[in-house]
Amino acid sequence: MTKADLVNHIFEKIGLPKTEIQKIVDTVFETMKEGLIEDEIIKISGFGVFTVRKKGARMGRNPKNMKPVEIKPRRVVTFRPSEKLKDRFQQILK
After folding, report:
1. Which residue in 77, 73, 74, 2 sits closest to 32, CA to CA?
2. pTM of the model
3. Which of 2, 3, 8, 22 is the most exposed, fewest CB within 10 Å of its CB?
4. What is the pLDDT of residue 49?
5. What is the architecture, at CATH level 2, of domain 41-94?
6. How many CA atoms lie within 13 A of 71 on its CB side?
């Protein structure tokens, strides 16, 4: 699902003007990005938790030539789904 699909889905459910929905969706995502940049934990009830994890430097291997290469330390965003979301997936699989 793209951001445009999300806007269209909200438009069909609520009926607000698409330009307003676009502004709201953009604001929500921008706020989430800013929070993650500041190492904040983003909890969305019934959906899950977004966190930033720091990964240390480590040695890897270039798959083209199999030579060792250092992978620099970095920050990555992780997502942990809520129990409600996990349960919903399990219902679909049954």
Report:
1. 77
2. 0.79
3. 2
4. 98
5. Irregular (4.10)
6. 10
